[in-house]
Amino acid sequence: MGMKYWSGVWGWAEATLFFIVPDVLITYGALSNRIRMVVRLCLWALGGALIGGCLMYITGVWFADHTRQLLVMIPAIDDALIEEVREELQTAGWQAIILGPTQGIPYKIYASYAAEADISLLFFLLISVPARVVRFLLAGLLAWGLSQWLLRPIGLRLKIGIWLLFWLTFYSFYFVQMGG
């Protein structure tokens, strides 16, 4: 299975139960120095995220109590964070779906409680496009630019080492900050 398919699967997985963002794979793909690959990976991750977001939206409608129990089993998600998202959705509505992921709050929580805030599934999916793809593209294009210009003289092995160090450091800080 090619990287684009893995990107779609990863987008779906992270929108549901997985807790590592598809940006990891997208930025890895950026090391190839092929910008078309980066864009393709972003679009496949978006497609997967939309499918996963739809699934979490429906699960939140049909199985609200069970969804909450499921979400709190995921690292860095607890009852307080879920309540924060529910309040944001009630006060800010669809804007919360755009802004939340910029604060490191998992998209899956917004997907699970959007219906409770009277956001229709269709509108939720429409607003999810910019909410997801902008970050994917920013991460991918930044990694591509760094790989293309700043890291160009070094070999692929060293680039992969820098990429790995970055993501290990990122998630170390993220899980300490988010309490996961």
From TrEMBL:
Q: Which UniProt keywords apply?
A: Membrane, Transmembrane, Transmembrane helix
Residues crossing the lipid bilayer are 12-31, 43-64, 121-144, 156-176
Q: Does the keyword Membrane apply?
A: yes
Indicate what this protein is called per its UniProt record: DedA family protein
Which source organism?
A: Salicibibacter cibi
